[in-house]
Amino acid sequence: xxxxxxxxxxxxxxxxxxxxxxxxxxxxxxxxxxxxxxxxxxxxxxxxxxxxxxxxxxxxxx
Length: 62
Prior knowledge:
Layout lengths: L9 H5 L8 E2 H8 L3 H10 L6 E4 L2 E4 L1
């Protein structure tokens, strides 16, 4: 018996997809309100997520 309450439509499935993107350091600084030095100090203390290296001298955050 098909359910009329939860139709299996593409629009409903797409509603719950997550977006995965990488954020540059400058944007992280603006969003967090923290300076570069403070961000790296907190990373060293284990209180801020570590960045991902995407090349020589270039990092991004998830």
